[in-house]
Amino acid sequence: MAAVKNGRVLVVDDETDVLFAMKMLLKAEVKEVVTEKNPENLMRLLDKERFDVIFLDMNFKSALHTGNEGIYWLSRIREKDPNATVILITAYGDVELAVRSLKEGAYDFIVKPWHNDKLLETLHHALESKQLKQKGQAAKLKTDNAIPILGESDAIREVLYKIDKIAPTEANVLILGENGTGKELVARALHQKSFRADKPFVSVDVGALTDSLFESELFGYKKGAFTDAKEDRIGRFEAANGGTLFLDEIGNISLPMQAKLLTVLQNRQVTPLGSNQPIPVDIRLITATNAPIYQLAAQNQFRKDLIYRINTVEILLPPLRERGADVELLAQHFAAYYAPKNHKAIPAFDPATLKKLRQHAWPGNIRELQHAVERAIIMAEGNVLQPQDFSFSAMEFDAPQTTPAGALVFDQQMPLSEIERETIRRVIEKNKGNISKSAKELGLTRTALYRRLNKHEI
C-alpha cells in the first residue's frame, strides 16, 4: 500500500475539466498529482521530475483526433525512460488504437468517460507493479483496491495450488463461486502467472450485455453495420488477442448468445457485424459465474456443449464462511488498508469482535467483510474495534427477517438510501446474482438497476 500512497502521478490532457477531475480523484490516493495541459512541455517536465505513473491523453487540440499524438508522445516518453509507466486516456471509439498502444509500451488504457473505481484499480495495479519490478520481484496479483489473494485455510490453499498448476497452460478455465468470493481476482492471477502475462487482460461482464449489444461488444462492428455505427470498432475478442479474455457472469447469457459464443470458441475467429470477413483470434479464455450452471444445463437453459468448451479446468472458490481463520486475516488486512485512507490509525480488534466476525455467515463473502470493516473504522470511537462497531443489516444474514407476507424488515431509523441499497442487495442475493430477474422483481430496467448498483457501490 505504501507504493500507492507514496506515488507521484502526472496527468497530461488539454481539457481543463479532465485535469481538475483527475486531480480531485487522485489527490487522496497518492502523494502528489501534477497536471499539464501542453504535451510540448512533457520532455522538460520529465527532465526535472520523476513520476511513478503518467496518464496521457491520446488526442490534443493541436491536431486531428486520430489518437496518433498519444502514440507519438508515448514513444517520446519511452525513449527518455524505457521503464516509464504510461496509462493512456482514450475516447470510446479509439479503443482499437489504444490496444495497439499496449504493444508500443503503454501499461494500460482507460476510456472516457471513465468509472472512478476502475481508474483507481488501474492506477493501483500500475504503482504496485512498478514497485515490484524495481525490487526485481514477480508481478504481485491485485484486485479492486489493490487487494492480494490472502488466506491460510486449506480451502484457499487448494485454490492457490490450482492457480499455480493451471496458469502456465492454455486450458480454458471456469471459475465457480458465490458473489463476492473473488472470481475476477483469480482470473487475474491466472493471467499474471501465465505466458501471456505481458499481453492484454480484457474483462467483460457478459451478464450486463443485452442480446442486441452482445455481438457488437464481443465481436466488434464495421462502419454502417447499424444506425449508430459511425466508425469501425474492434470487439473484446480482438482487444484480448494474444492475451486473456475473462467473461464474467457467463451463466446469465441467453441461449441464442450461447450459440454464437460457442461458434467463435470452436472456430477461434470472429466476424464483426457488417462484415463477411472472419478475423482469427488467439485468446486464453477464463469464464466465471455464481449461477448453478450444471443445474441450468440439466434444465436446458445452458448448452452442455458450451460447458465442455469453457471448463477444461474448473476452480471452485470457497465461501468465506468455510475459510475459518481467514476471516480474521482478511479483516486485519482491510483495516490496514482503510484506516490510513480515512486518516485514522490502524486499529486493533477486540477478541470479542473477532469472535463475532468468525460467527457471522457472510452471505456477501469477502466483499461484505471489506465493506463491514471500512464502515466500522469510519464509525468507531476508539482505536480498538469493538463488537458494537460491526452491525449487520437484515440483508447480511443467511435467514433475513421477513414479515409473514414476505416484505423486507429494516431498522426504522435506517436512512432511505441504505434501505434502497439493502433491498437491492437482498433481491440480487435471492435471485443468485441474476440481474434480469432482480430488475424485474424490483420493477426496474436492467440499465436503471446497474445505475443503482454503481450508486451504492454494490
From TrEMBL:
A Gene Ontology MF term for this entry? Answer: sequence-specific DNA binding
Q: Keyword ATP-binding on this protein?
A: yes
Which ranges carry the Sigma-54 factor interaction domain? 149-378
* Record-linked Pfam families: AAA_lid_14, HTH_8, Response_reg, Sigma54_activat
Q: Does the keyword Hydrolase apply?
A: no
Q: Which domain of life is it from?
A: Bacteria
The UniProt entry, under CDD domains, shows:
AAA (cd00009)
* Domain Response regulatory: from-to ranges: 8-127
Q: What GO terms in the biological process aspect are recorded for it?
A: phosphorelay signal transduction system; regulation of DNA-templated transcription
Residue positions where 4-aspartylphosphate is found in the record: D57
The family database entries (InterPro entries) matched by this protein are listed as:
AAA+_ATPase, AAA_lid_NorR, CheY-like_superfamily, Homeodomain-like_sf, HTH_Fis, P-loop_NTPase, Sig_transdc_resp-reg_receiver, Sigma_54_int
- PROSITE patterns, sorted: RESPONSE_REGULATORY, SIGMA54_INTERACT_2, SIGMA54_INTERACT_3, SIGMA54_INTERACT_4
The family database entries (Gene3D superfamilies) matched by this protein are listed as:
1.10.8.60, 3.40.50.2300, Homeodomain-like, P-loop containing nucleotide triphosphate hydrolases
Q: Which UniProt keywords apply?
A: ATP-binding, DNA-binding, Nucleotide-binding, Phosphoprotein, Transcription, Transcription regulation
Q: Please state what the protein is called.
A: DNA-binding transcriptional response regulator, NtrC family, contains REC, AAA-type ATPase, and a Fis-type DNA-binding domains
List the source organism. Pontibacter lucknowensis
